[in-house]
Specification:
It is elongated and about 70 Å long. By secondary structure, it is mainly α. The two termini are about 40 Å apart. It has one domain.
Length: about 190
C-alpha cells in the first residue's frame, strides 16, 4: 500500500491540496527569483566598484557604469517583491505576537484567518494599482530619463512579485480556514548562513 500525501498541505481535501501545493511551488520559484535578483544586484555593484577603481589607474576606462544606479534600483525592488511570498510561507516576516501569542489556539486560528483575509484584500488592491500603473507606463511609452529604458518591464516584474505574494496570502487564508499549518518548515533556512 502506498503512503498517503505528505507535506504541510497533506490534510487538505485533494482539490485544495493541489492548489495549495501549486502556490507553494510558486513561492519556491519566487524565492529563487529573489535570490537571482540579489546576485545580479551584487554583480552590478561589484562591476561598478571595479570600473571605478580601474578608472583611477587606467585613464581610458570610464569612471562608472551609466545605468548602474537605475538598474540597481530595479533589481532591489524585484528582490524585495520576489522574496516576499516565500518569506510569508516560511514564517519569516516580522510579526508582533504580543496579542496572538497569549490567546487560545481556537482564537488564534480565527485571528490568523481574519489577518490573512486582510492580507488578501491589501495585496489585491496593491496588485490592481500596480497593474494599472504598469499599463499606463506601457501605453504612454514612458521611458527613463537617464537611460532611455522603457519603464514598464521593471514595473511588470515588481507587479508579478506582488501577485505571487497575493496568491500566498490567499493560500494562507485557506490554510487558516481549514486548520492547516500556516508555515512550511521545509522552506525555512536550516542555518543562519543560508
Amino acid at each position: 500500500m502506498s503512503p498517503g500525501p505528505s507535506g504541510p498541505n497533506a490534510a487538505a481535501p485533494p482539490a485544495l491540496r493541489t492548489i495549495l501545493d501549486a502556490i507553494d511551488r510558486l513561492a519556491r520559484i519566487d524565492g529563487w527569483m529573489g535570490a537571482t535578483c540579489l546576485a545580479a544586484l551584487f554583480a552590478l555593484i561589484f562591476a561598478e566598484v571595479l570600473v571605478r577603481t580601474l578608472s583611477n589607474v587606467l585613464p581610458w576606462v570610464p569612471a562608472d557604469i551609466p545605468v548602474a544606479w537605475e538598474y540597481g534600483s530595479y533589481l532591489m525592488a524585484a528582490a524585495f517583491t520576489f522574496g516576499a511570498a516565500m518569506t510569508l510561507r516560511a514564517g519569516g516576516h516580522i510579526r508582533v505576537t504580543l496579542l496572538i501569542g497569549r490567546v487560545s489556539p481556537a482564537v488564534r486560528r480565527h485571528m490568523e484567518t481574519v489577518l490573512a483575509a486582510l492580507g488578501v484584500g491589501f495585496t489585491t488592491f496593491l496588485v490592481y494599482a500596480l497593474v494599472n500603473f504598469t499599463w499606463q507606463s506601457f501605453d504612454s511609452g514612458q521611458i527613463s530619463i537617464s537611460s532611455g529604458t522603457p519603464l514598464w518591464p521593471a514595473q511588470a516584474v515588481v507587479t508579478f512579485g506582488v501577485v505571487l505574494l497575493m496568491l500566498q496570502f490567499v493560500a494562507r487564508f485557506l490554510q487558516a480556514l481549514f486548520g492547516l499549518p500556516l508555515e512550511s518548515l521545509d522552506m525555512r533556512a536550516s542555518s543562519v548562513s543560508e
